[in-house]
Amino acid sequence: MNEIAVSVEGLGKKFRLYHERNQSLKSALMRRKISDYEDFWALRNITFEVPQGSNFALIGSNGSGKSTLLRCLAKILWPDEGRIESHGRVASLLEVGSGFHPELSGRENIYLNGSILGMSRKEVDRKFDDIVEFSEIGKFIDQPVKSYSSGMYVRLGFSVAIHVQPDVLVVDEILAVGDASFQEKSRAKFDELHQQGKTVILVSHSLSTVMQMCDRAAWIEKGLLQQVGPVEEVAAAYTRSLFPLAAELIESYTPEREAEIGWVVSGRNPIPHHGGGVVQG
Questions:
Q1: What is the DSSP letter of 230?
Q2: Angle of helix 106-116 relative to helix 150-162, nearest 10 degrees?
Q3: Are residues 15 and 162 in contact, defined by beta-carbon separation less than 8 angstroms?
Q4: What whole-number distance in Å separates Cα of residue 225 and Cα of residue 241?
Q5: pTM of the predicted model, to two decimals?
Q6: Starting from the edge strand earliest in sequence, which strands make up the sheet with 90-93, in order?
Q7: 106: part of which helix (H) or strand (E)?
């Protein structure tokens, strides 16, 4: 894993927060005043590298900037400072129905979404049956997708994205929408991509999912990079920030005690006993 799939250096993204905004030229002339706004930096000075073939997680609290960063990686948003370098084909699955037209059928949206992700019509023709089979849409494939449930949307969108055979797959929290069977099927597909040397970058609030699926992670808080490294270390630091130790217990919580109790519980890092966040003894 010496090669780098994605490199992010000094990345920053800002948005305008309007206090007063002219909605038209008439409004601007009547008020004789330009729109009043301030810059809000959603991301600032973000730097990390994603090794080729790794499953890389972005973790952090709500509003920390994870999804904004994911959209920058997927080239939906353009950073205001810094740079992003990616190697190979990048596919993204960021929200339910992204790239779908609600009035078109599932069949038509496969071709539409496939073309957006860089597939030719012949390539979609070749993979069409596999896409439909994986999505489990079945007889509803010729129905307008506006009649689909959120789960059907997710399955079809995810199926198209992974059949692009991307070198880098960017995935937002959306997999939480699927049922248990689909989530297990998705994890198996991620394992297959991992074995093929593909790179997956995902956002999730589920630390158990992150620990099971990923080997490295970056923790972002309030638009700033807090830590990047092995997933166990980053997840433990993030958990400690959410559930800090009581002041009277800090001295007694030695490295040996942390090794015994731990902070993160998952199938990847099983811990027989834990204190539920705030250690009591």
A1: E
A2: 40
A3: no
A4: 14
A5: 0.75
A6: 90-93, 168-171, 199-203, 55-59, 216-221, 224-230
A7: helix 106-116
> What is the distance between the alpha carbons of residues 219 and 203, in angstroms, rounded to a whole number?
10
For residue 165, give every residue at least 6 positions away whose Cβ sits within 8 Å of its Cβ, in sequence order, or none. Answer: 89
* Of 216, 140, 212, nearest in space to 183 by CA: 212
pLDDT digits (tens, 9 = 90+) for 229-256: 999 999 888 988 887 665 666 666 666 6
Distance CA 169, CA 111 (A): 19
φ and ψ of 213, to 5 deg:
-100, -25
- CA–CA gap between residue 168 and residue 147 (Å, rounded): 31
Longest C-alpha distance within the chain, in Å? 69
Alpha carbon distance 228, 205 (integer Å): 16
Q: What is the DSSP secondary structure assignment for residue 123, as one 8-state letter?
A: H
Three-point CA angle 29, 30, 34, nearest 5°: 55
**19: confidence class by pLDDT, cuts 50, 70, 90:** low
Q: What is the C-alpha separation between 55 and 200, in angstroms, rounded? A: 5
Q: Which of the 8 DSSP states describes residue 268?
A: S
Check: CB of residue 41 under 8 Å from CB of residue 6.
Answer: no
Radius of gyration of the chain (CA): 22
110-113 contacts, C-beta under 8 A, 24 or more apart: 110/156, 110/160, 113/157, 113/160
Judge whether 190 and 162 are in contact, CB under 8 Å: no
Residue 107 has what pLDDT?
Answer: 94
Mean pLDDT of the residues in the chain? 81
In terms of DSSP H, where are the helices of 163-242?
A: 180-195, 207-213, 231-242
